[in-house]
Structure formats: C-alpha cells, structure tokens
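A quick aside before the break. I want you to see a complete sequence-to-structure record at least once, exactly as it would be stored in a machine-readable document. Don't worry about memorizing anything.
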Amino acid sequence: MLTVLSVDRAREEIISSLRGWSAKVENVSLKNAPGRVTSGDIFAPETLPPFPRSTMDGFAVCSADTFGASEELPAILSLRGNILMGQKPPGPIFPGEAMSIPTGGMLPVGSDSVAMIEYCELLGNNVAVFRPVAPLENTIQPGDDFKSGDLLFPAGHYLRPQDIGILAAQGIMQLSVIARPQVKIFSTGDEIVPPERQPEPGQVRDVNSYLLASQVQESGGEPVYGGIIPDRQESLSSALEQALEDDVDMVLVSGGSSVGTRDVAIDAINALPGEGVLFHGVAMRPGKPLLYGKSKGKPIFGLSGNPVSAMFGFILFVKPALRLMCGLSPLAPFTPTVEALLLTNIASPGGREDYVRVSLEYACEDKKVKEKGEILWARPVYGGPGLLHTVVQGDGYIVIPRDVEGLDEGSRVKVFLF
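That is the input. The structure line, written in tokens, reads:
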C-alpha cells in the first residue's frame, strides 16, 4: 500500500537528497552558450564602451558653447569636420567649434555633448544650434555599461540572449558552464512498442520516452533513450545497473510504479546498491504513484505510465532536481502564470492536490460570458491521465489544494502556463 507524501514534502525530500551535488563542468563556445549555466563568476575584461560615443545623429560640441541658444538667437559654431562611423575623429575641437557625428560615432577631444541634428542647421561652414545641450547629453561615456573588472555574471547564472550579447561585446568567445545532466529514460511494459511500429491489438506506442525526453531537453538536461523494458524485475534491474555504470546522472522509469502485481520498479530500485527507494506515492492527481530513490548517489524517478501523470510528475519533481543539478535554484524564481475566472464549477475529491488542465479564452459561445465582457476565462479540459488531449488542448493548469473539495464558477484562479 502506498504511503503518500504531500507534494511539498516530496519535493523537499528530493531537493534535500541532492544538496551538495557535484556538477560536471565543460567549456563551450559562445555560440553554444545560450541556455547554459555559468560554472563560475565571469568578470569584464574590458571597459564598455571603450570610448565616448554619440547616441544621436548631430554635432559634437562643447556644451558651454550652446548655453542660452534659442530659435531667435542660436549659437553659431564653426564646423571643423566630419566624424565617420568606425573611425577616429579627424582631430580635437576647440571652443566655438563643432563636428558632425553619426549615432555611435566617437566623440572628439574637446567635446562633451551632442546637439541633435533636428535642432541644428548648416550655414555654409558654420552650424546654428537652436537648443542648448547639457554636459554629456546624447552621449555614452566609457564605462557607462561595464568597467573592466566588473562582475558580469555570478556562478549559477542562466545565460539568456541578452547575456550572450554582452559576452560578445567583451570578446569572450569561450566560457566554462555546468555540463548538461545526462538523463537515461526507460519505458516499461509488455504492451509498449516503439512509435514507428504499428501496434497490434492490446499494444500502445511508446509515448513517454519522447514526452519525457522533450521535457528533459527543455529543462537543461540531455536525454538518453534507454528503450522499452519488459514487465520483469530482472530485466529492469539489469537495465538500471547498466545505466548506473554508464556516464548518466539521472534515471527516469515510466510505468511499473503503481500498486499491482506486475509493478517491478520498487523491487528493482531496492535491489540496487545505495539508498534504494526513498518514498513512494504523492498526494496528487494525476501522478499519485510517483516513486523516488537513489543509487550510487544518482537520483532515480519512477513515473506513472499514463502520459499526463508522467508529465506532471516531471514538472513538479524531476524538473526541480534537474535545475539543482544544473547549478540553478531548484524552484524557478518566476513562473509564467495568469489570473482568470473559472467558467464552470469543478469538483475535487479532497485529500490530495488536484492539477486540473484548463484552456484560456476571452470569449466563447456561452451567452453569460459574452455579457460579462472581455475577461480571461479558464475552461476545464476534462479527461483522465491517459488522455493527452487534456494537455494538448490545455493552455495550463490550476491547482486545487488537498483540503478543498472543489471550486465554484466565477472563482478567481491562478493558471500555471504550459
């Protein structure tokens, strides 16, 4: 019989068991760095920008020469020359002088600001400035972005596109990152066949290997397909032993974890050297028969054979473990959510957290919704844990707490987006 834990307690058990995880490190090129996690602090080798630059098309000037300028009485400055993009200025300017400059151009010595071209007019070899500019106006100064030695990113930083941009600006073309955890994935069941094969009566295609592999990849891991294992303990034990000998960091087994005479995952994991099964069963729907264990320091998850249950088991438990193994905090600081009003009543059995898939819409055929205007509504997508349409058609899910037996129509809910 399953002795179930709460979702929070089960997650805490997993996270606690992986504290102190020693992540592998590797060097990658900058073009392969997006989505990776820094293994150490990265400091700026250069000052950016390295020279004073204009942020506008206009004229480099000494700001003091423009004080008091107006439409009626413009400041008249001698045009000393032109600054070309990507080149040094032809020389300095002196009081009473100006140089034309493009956006991004290097300011000449003697200038401290740029008068926008919209407020200037060429008059032969002179330029009339009709609006005063303040010191440093329309310019970027050396070090305004980063100074040499500044911390760009701390260890454990997830590299986003904008981060790649600043690394390129600093000329950092190679960097050290946390290696992607290798995750071996097995599907179990005598009824499972590869997806490329036409199933016989009573057989089903292997959905979970590909579903879980996609989630692993999306979460920063590297999926390794382990194949389909028959419903026999010796077969699964042999596969798990081989996986632990291989250079993998985590093992996922789908199927074989619910209560039944042919459920072999528990015995197979307990037969391995190490801690064995740490818990079996979580008070949630779908995904109750989840199990978690360790062997040789490597985490092993037993997920339900039902695809939707396996998917939620991954979201709630495997993903936090993968994040920790990637050098990130187990739980993301920000989760994409929206608030919506519930379109219909939802009953829940109570005693376990209920993860109800919903679709989102601003209007629908229900007359009552149209009358209420453009409000975001959450419509439940009903179906069991073996029916993938509930997550394919759903935009996200809501959580009904274990001590609540349902939600009323019109309730304000938080929708966690897929």
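Two observations worth writing down. The chain has eight helices and 28 strands. The helical segments are 7-17, 161-169, 208-218, 233-245, 265-270, 307-325, 367-371, 389-392. We'll return to this after the break.
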